[in-house]
Write a structure and sequence with these properties.
The protein has 428 residues and is α+β, with helices and mostly antiparallel strands. The protein has helices at 92-96, 128-137, 155-171, 204-219, 232-247, 254-268, 314-329, 404-419, and strands at 2-4, 14-20, 27-28, 33-39, 42-47, 52-57, 64-66, 70-75, 222-230, 274-277, 282-285, 291-293, 295-296, 301-302, 305-306, 343-347, 366-370, 374-379, 385-398. The chain folds into three domains: 2-75, RNA polymerase II/Efflux pump adaptor protein, barrel-sandwich hybrid domain (OB fold (Dihydrolipoamide Acetyltransferase, E2P), Beta Barrel); 101-171, E3-binding domain (Dihydrolipoamide Transferase, Irregular); 223-425, Chloramphenicol Acetyltransferase, CATH 3.30.559.
């Protein structure tokens, strides 16, 4: 039998083979990992759907494969029962349902909508909010193929259906006089004519990062707010509790303090913890605080999510930060580990540099950039000049939903939370 690539997630339908963990002649069990597949920014283990002996491996490392592709071929394990002969029975429920051609889910599918889909099939399941959006947009749900459990229609399915309609209309020439958006032809330049060069292929991860960064930078209205925070108070607390945290098995770095201060500022300014629903044209104000932590790895930038940061102690944050950073650098974070973030921190302090302008991690509405803390002369409230550890901070925000005044107030509150950090949050 053939072992094929299964559906891994709601959005990922292809990936690149990064490692093959079995060899021809090896006896494997059902559920055993046979390859590792890079999908988006995560490396996922792919299990075998059956037990048997590996007869042939049908993929190579570096191959890009899609759902349904044959990974390997098995022969039956010794003693395995042969499949029973006889006609297959059709479930009555399945026989009673009229067949409906599934709508392609690929965003790059430019085929026109088939005429025989006009009537659609039976109305699929959907949540009340999705039904409301579909009703307001005039979309019959029986024309949309759902990607949720049991074929339920999700809000992303509606967006994909609308995009497909727009492409079909554009091909018909109705938008001939309107701009088609940003579209640039690929240009091949022979740089070797100017001097020696070395070429290396772009990894799948680097291609994904590039596409996401371009999309985020052109679809969001980026504005960046700059400031500095005096970390005198935090550095004193770190020195005071350093030994206690090391005894508890973790290092006390500035990042847990930053997360705590950030959450307090987000609670006062909920638009910074929100997302725009571009289909329903609504602003979603989130009541949870899942903080994305940008991690610099050899393969590229990964952003695992630290969940429910508002419910965790400083010790728990320090321990979890260490664990997720290690997982990211070892490429052990899964796709689910990088979903659901409400706000992202990009901390370059350990590397160096000052202010920079981070790109918002869509669909979030803002991102915090941290530079290296350095001693600088500061005029105190008493009029004295003292050397203080000053940390550069930048807040990039989506100007579609956040105004400059709101960004300034958010930054002021964040700086205040850092400079007046309570000792009670640190003590064990």
């Amino acid at each position: 039998m053939d072992v094929r690539l299964p559906k891994i997630g709601d959005s990922a339908d292809s990936g690149t083979v990064v490692s093959i963990l079995v060899k021809p002649g090896e006896v494997i069990t059902a559920g055993q990992t046979v390859i590792e597949l890079e999908q988006e920014k995560a490396v996922a283990p792919i299990p075998s759907s059956a037990a048997g002996t590996v007869a042939e491996i049908r993929v190579r490392e570096g191959d890009k494969i899609s759902v349904g592709a044959v990974i390997l071929t098995l022969t039956a394990a010794a003693g395995a029962a042969a499949p029973a002969a006889g006609p297959a029975k059709t479930a009555p429920a399945a026989a009673s349902r009229p067949a409906r051609r599934p709508e392609p889910m690929d965003d790059d599918d430019d085929e026109p909508l088939p005429a025989d889909e006009a009537d659609g099939g039976p109305t699929p399941g959907a949540s009340p909010s999705v039904r409301k959006v579909a009703r307001e947009l005039g979309i019959p749900l029986n024309r949309v193929t759902g990607s949720g459990n049991g074929g339920r229609v999700l809000i992303t399915d509606l967006a994909r259906y609308i995009a497909r309609l727009e492409r079909a209309v554009a091909r018909a020439g109705r938008y001939a006089d309107e701009p088609k958006g940003l579209s640039f032809a690929a240009v091949s330049t022979d740089f070797s004519v100017f001097g020696p060069v070395v070429s290396e292929p772009l990894s799948e991860l680097r291609k994904i990062i590039a596409a996401r960064m371009v999309e985020n930078s052109v679809t969001l209205a980026h504005v960046t707010q700059f400031d500095e925070a005096d970390l005198t108070r935090i550095e004193a607390l770190r020195k005071q509790f350093k030994a206690a945290y090391e005894k508890a098995g973790t290092r006390l770095t500035p990042t847990p303090f930053i997360i705590k201060a950030l959450v307090s500022a987000l609670k006062r300014h909920p638009r910074f913890n929100s997302s725009v629903n571009e289909v329903a044209q609504t602003l979603v104000l989130k009541q949870y605080y899942h903080i994305g932590i940008a991690v610099d790895t050899d393969a590229g930038l990964l952003v695992p999510v630290l969940r429910d940061a508002d419910k965790k102690s400083l010790l728990q944050l320090a321990q979890e930060l260490s664990a997720i950073a290690e997982k990211a650098r070892d490429r052990k974070v899964g796709a689910e580990d990088m979903k659901g973030g409400t706000f992202t921190i990009s901390n370059q302090g350990a590397i160096g540099g000052g202010h920079f302008t981070p790109i918002i991690n869509k669909p979030e509405s803002a991102i915090l950039g941290i530079g290296k803390t350095q001693l600088k002369p500061v005029v105190t409230a008493e009029g004295k000049i003292e050397a203080r550890p000053m940390m550069p901070i930048t807040v990039s925000y989506d100007h579609r939903i956040i105004d400059g005044g709101s960004a300034a107030r958010f930054t002021v509150d964040l700086v205040k939370a850092l400079q007046e950090f309570p000792e009670s949050e640190v003590s064990l």
